[in-house]
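B., you asked whether I could sanity-check this one before it goes into the benchmark set. Here's the sequence:
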Amino acid sequence: MIPCPLCNHQAQFFLQDKKRAFYVCPHCGLVMADPKSHLRPSIEMQRYGRAQKGAKQRQLSQFLMPLLAQINLQQSGILSGLNFGRVLDQQCLQSINEAGHSVKQYDPFFAADHSVLQTTYDFVCSYKVFEHFRHPNKEWQLLSRLVKPGGWLAISTPLMTDLRHFNKWHYKNNPTHVSFYQRQTFEYLTENSEFTLLFVSQALILMQKSSGSGIKRILI
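And here's what the prediction gave me:
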């Protein structure tokens, strides 16, 4: 057994494939790769850099622009946001600016400007980044702090729907993917934080930070 890097409960051995061992936490539902199998930062940076281009950039833009429109329906006016974990291309940034909003960016490899982590935002989005978190509790605490009261946290990461199929899930085969989430995991996070879980699909988790107005918890 190893300690769960999200809730610190004891995680149990779950699966051994050809390259890595995986553990599952019975408390929060997180599945994690054995820390001994984590790639060296230099190798991860090289692999991660390839994902910053081409189709991934388009997918990130296609994730963020509708998200802004949806948040704007709930919260009118100029929005300030943080794109956490990846870097948007200039075309998408220009579209956001033309819509009257502002987005700062943080990427640990390619935009490591820690000053953007010293303020709070109307929204923080994280597109296919959570699966890279080696210390998800640390990142969760940071992201929670970055969201203003009443603000939004949007997370795109594929959710596991059935642990029995994990062995055949292609997503676990990427060696940079070390943390895998179930619906149970985000329910655990909302039950132990100021956030309300407003929407969950297989690849989108949308959460709102309490503004003290008694928002009801809705699961779709």
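One thing to flag: Confidence is low (pLDDT under 50) at residues 213-220. Otherwise nothing jumped out at me.
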